[in-house]
Please model this.
Amino acid sequence: MGDSPIDEGEITKVLRNCLQQVEYAGANFQLWNMEMRYKGQWLVDIFMELPNGCDLPELETGEITLLLTQLDANTLLFALMDQLLAMSNDHVNQIFSYAGFRRFSRTVDLNKIARMSVILRQQGHLNSDQEFLQAFERANEATDRTRIPRLHPGPLAERRFRELNEFAPLQGMLPK
Model:
């Protein structure tokens, strides 16, 4: 922003024009309101004109409010992209569940999640259930096996294996 005053009329035109060029899932965007905050930040309200049959429920409010550190088109577009991604992620968090539990939903009491996490990290109660521990170790190993880098035969692979063998004995899994 600098020290020079902002011509709100001119920047409003620039931002309106910028938003007219944006489309997301068939939705069009219109600048609705701008308000300067006391520390030089800007609140920008955007109205989304949604197409009939829009299949993204996270857009159904039809409104987005952004907090911009600078009042220019580039900052607006990046903030808009960030907000659309955040809205999409939040939607997934609200609907994703395992065994009926929506662990990532913002409606779940954070204190309950914290208590559950502490309990799960206390290995003492788990040690009595050997079947669970073995299944847990197998699951971890299966996950780790999918993360092992594959080295293709050749001089580079041979050099990497020599370098790794210098650290022997290593725990874990060597590249394939």
About this structure: DSSP finds five helices and four strands in the chain. The chain has a mean pLDDT of 82. The two ends are 53 Å apart (CA to CA).
